[in-house]
């Protein structure tokens, strides 16, 4: 489906996002920001972001983790923005570019120091739609597995915001959506009966 700026700002979509933000199983990310969880695993904390290994990866079954991949290629770190008004890619403006640049450089440096991975071998990206509605950036090895349908590379985000500070608030964004989910329902309510955007990816 394609989400227009108007659809994103609609009461249906904003109600869906508010519900997601307040869902009990999604509260972990705000507990990380508030230093009430995962404090011993934090790699870097700044006024603008918190960096730590993916909190959710420890919940996966051993069979879900590709054991054959070298450890240096298996890391998955998250840089979580501390500004709770930044929920998704849509909330980013040109004024956030310095923060994003700092987040990118400092995280790549920290990964290089701890993992020995050259920054050229690190991919940084944001998912849209996200699984958790608090802006966070994924950092993984380029050889790792990636959800390419939702992936927006951080350098591209920075570039787009440099060209147009309102880029993501004005863009039509194509996104994969599972049928019969809350997101699907919220988007569907903003489409006309014969709208071609109802085509599911």
Low-confidence stretches: 58-66, 193-201
Number of domains: 1
Beta-strand content estimate: 15-25%
**Average pLDDT rating:** 88
Which tags fit this structure?
201 residues, HIT family, subunit A, 7 helices, 31% helix, disordered C terminus
Description of the molecule:
The chain is of the alpha+beta class and 201 residues long. The chain has one domain: 2-Layer Sandwich (HIT family, subunit A). It has 7 helices and 8 strands, in the order E-H-H-H-E-E-E-H-E-E-E-H-H-E-H. The chain has helices at residues 5-9, 11-21, 28-33, 97-115, 154-163, 167-170, 182-188; strands at residues 2-3, 44-45, 49-53, 76-81, 122-127, 136-141, 151-153, 173-174. Strands 2-3-4-6-5-7 form a 6-stranded antiparallel β-sheet. Strands 1-8 form a two-stranded antiparallel sheet. A hairpin with an 8-residue loop joins strand 5 (122-127) and strand 6. Helix 4 runs antiparallel to helix 5. The radius of gyration is 17 Å and the shape is globular. The chain starts with a strand and ends in a 13-residue tail after the last helix.
Set out the fold topology.
Blueprint: E1 2-3, H1 5-9, H2 11-21, H3 28-33, E2 44-45, E3 49-53, E4 76-81, H4 97-115, E5 122-127, E6 136-141, E7 151-153, H5 154-163, H6 167-170, E8 173-174, H7 182-188
Brief overview:
This protein has 201 residues and is of the alpha+beta class. The chain has seven helices and eight strands.
